[in-house]
Amino acid sequence: MKSFPFDSDVTYDSDGNPEYDRGVDSTILSEFLHLMYKDGVFPNPSTGLQVTSSSEEMSVVVKPGNCMIQGRMGIEESYRTLVFNAAGTSYDRIDSVVARLNTNHDYRDIDLYVVKGTEASTPTAPELTRTGGIYELRLADVFIAKNTTTISEERITDTRLSDECGIVTSNPNPVDTSTIFKQYQASLDAYMQYVQECIDGTTAGNLQKQIDTLDVRTTDVENGLEELNSNLNNISTLLNSLESKRFKSTLLKRITDAQSWVTVGSLSGKDIFEVAVFTGTGNVITSTFVSKVVARQCTVAYPYQIYNGSALAVQFYVSGDTLYIFNYTGYVSNIYT
Predict the structure, then answer these.
(1) CA nearest 323: which of 306, 301, 299, 304?
(2) How far is CA 6 from CA 20, 24, 323, in A?
(3) Whole-number mean pLDDT of the chain?
(4) Which end of the chain is more exposed for a tag (fewer CB within 10 A), N or C?
């Protein structure tokens, strides 16, 4: 395990050179800083390492600023002029200005460079190098138009805020808690299983059993209420039937007390009237008995008719729950009015 900083015991070799038993190199410090800070340019000032146009041909100016690359600092205190290769004659291209970390022994620094793109009818910015001890941040893309000798401000695209550069902040990498969570979850599951086993033999467990019993009894009560409602409906139907029978009895008595009816076919006039009124002959009554009798003069075409001999005795029809009687002879009106 790497660890620092610690004081070293100093010893000397045969040539008198000091040797430190707790000495560290730059790598361990850069690794520490990389854990703490994200790569990018420092946000203050806002113009730090900004790429702008230059009065000189085929060049740009990079303003002073600071950057952090892989835990190593780059500090630029001066305005830097960077020169580009000449424009092509047939196609445009895009070059990039980068801050480059180079840890190879002959360099061991961070500096500013121009990375040349490829000429094309639809040019794209060159890829960054991030291997072999080199790590680049893209500060700007510069459009190099064919046959041009200058770089205007509108040809420069600032990329300091892109994901290929960015701003130095505290490292935003999320905390990986998956392993710890699994351990806590396993412990919680074991605890809940133990609690459930205990509940089965406690008051809480008995209470749950009582609740389950009450649920069953509630279902029984609901079924009983349904049966009661059904019985009440049957009683209501029976009462309606009794009322209809009472009406029939009263009407039959009035028919019996009336003058005699003349036989028509195999039925007497009284029988025909009874069949018509109480059994639903024709469209008079279907499933229920009428509850009202209304005597009026005949104003409806084709009512039901009963004859006394050859003379028309009565005409009638039913609408809704009303029996309408149309009086044509005196003795009939004495019965129904």
Answers:
(1) 304
(2) 11, 9, 117
(3) 76
(4) N
- Lookup result for tokens 């059994």: 279
CB atoms within 10 A of CB 167: 15
Instruction: Give the residue from 56, 111, 44 showing the smallest Cα distance to 84.
Output: 56
Strand order in the sheet with 80-83: 51-53, 59-62, 80-83
Q: Name the region of 44 (left: φ>0; alpha: ψ -120 to 50; beta: rest).
A: beta
Q: Which tokens hold the place of 197? A: 């086993």
Collect all residues with Cβ–Cβ distance below 8 Å to 95 and sequence separation of at least 6.
84, 85, 114, 115, 116, 117, 126, 141, 142, 144
At 106-164, the pLDDT tens digits run: 999 999 999 999 999 999 999 999 999 999 999 999 999 999 999 999 999 999 999 99
* Residue 188 backbone zone (phi > 0: left; psi -120 to 50: alpha; other: beta): alpha
